[in-house]
Write a structure and sequence with these properties.
Distance between the termini: 10 Å
Largest sheet: 6 strands, parallel
Length: 210
């Protein structure tokens, strides 16, 4: 079947949220970074009804600080959320997205966040995406399969006509693959996945191989 749409995870795949989060956490108290990411993933997986991602970040921060016996401050949460929203793009992300648009592919984002945060992150590059769908829009967080089902309904594309690209098998690739969506792993963190690229400039060649 012809690929009609290429969708992406945003934070950690196209933009370097680990850099932004790590910078803030290490400023507050060193040694908490990996524990924070474990907390964040655990919270997202357990969500039954939609909760804003701003609240999720604050909860993960609060719980992580508690474990390290560091006092929580509201100012820390605002600093974390602001830094997250302003996470920088990986250089290959912009170049790969431009190449996709030049080649005539439609592109979209499926993000575990709020519209207000994504708007800040994508400032200046909105033209590179035909669709931007967040957990706030669809009411579910990845890895819940309903997040993908609802997102692709909004984008008006059949599951088999889409390719989803992510640097996180656990959040994205595993549930999308179960639904019949073609998947590509963009290698940022050394995970294992069948269809793999090292940077986004390789994306068009990999799509043609699927």
């Amino acid at each position: 079947m012809v690929i009609r749409l290429v969708t992406f995870d945003l934070y950690g795949t196209l933009v370097d949220w680990r850099y932004s989060i790590s910078t803030v956490l290490n400023y507050i108290h060193r040694g908490m970074v990996e524990r924070f990411f474990e907390k964040e993933f655990s919270i997202v997986k357990e969500i039954k009804t939609y909760t804003s991602y701003t609240e999720i970040l604050e909860k993960a921060l609060r719980e992580t600080l508690r474990e390290f016996n560091v006092e929580f401050r509201k100012e820390y949460a605002r600093l974390l959320v602001t830094s997250f929203a302003k996470s920088p793009f990986f250089p290959d992300s912009i170049l790969g997205l431009i190449a996709l648009k030049k080649a005539g592919y439609r592109t979209g984002i499926i993000s575990n966040t709020d519209r207000s945060l994504v708007k800040i992150t994508l400032s200046g590059v909105e033209d590179l995406f035909d669709y931007i769908v967040t957990a706030e829009d669809i009411g579910y967080y990845k890895p819940d399969e309903r997040a993908f089902i609802n997102a692709y309904k909004i984008m008006n594309v059949e599951l088999e006509e889409a390719v989803h690209v992510s640097s996180y098998p656990q959040y994205d690739l595993e549930p999308a693959n179960k639904l019949g969506v073609k998947t590509i792993y963009l290698d940022r963190y050394g995970y294992t996945w069948k269809n793999r690229i090292n940077n986004l400039e390789e994306i068009i060649g990999k799509i043609k191989e699927l």
